[in-house]
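Hi everyone,

Forwarding the result from last night's run.
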Amino acid sequence: MAARAGRATRWLALLLVASSASALTTVDFVVELAPGAAHRSFAVEVHPDWAPLGAARFVELVEEQFFDGVAFFRVIGGFMAQFGINGNLTKQKRWKSRAIPDEASPVAAPPRASNARGRLTFAHAGKNTRTTQLFLNFGNNARLDRENFPPFAEVAGGAQGSKRERNSPLQRLISRPFSTRFG
């Protein structure tokens, strides 16, 4: 997506770093605030034990370079930042038709992890509709747990900032829409 006139374009690259020493996968988000500008980054650890289907889909999307050209299109301060719509219509259509089933119902079994600050969760439009859209929690959004939004990853380092800091460096980093690319 092109930046609006007068706004610097921001880039995001996702690098998959698999660790053979543990079951966790780490994905590095590398953000270029403007073409040629210094990069900022944060790391996300994927926890398959929290939401196995969501974790597997995220890793699959990263490996397939789905996030190349994807922008954070919805950012709500203190709540979340949402991304996951690819500008390549053929690629988006192919993944949109591949919804994954919900994890266990929050009524049948309590969630394995809560929507706490810094956790990554799939967005959905109802039962069994998770495809490619994700959101990153900026605050404690535990109310989403009972609505079947199980987190599958969390920010492990980089721009997350202090837990007490409501306007974190991460939130400031992605406070406006920007373009993305796979690095």
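The first strand starts at residue 11 and ends at 18.

Cheers,
N.
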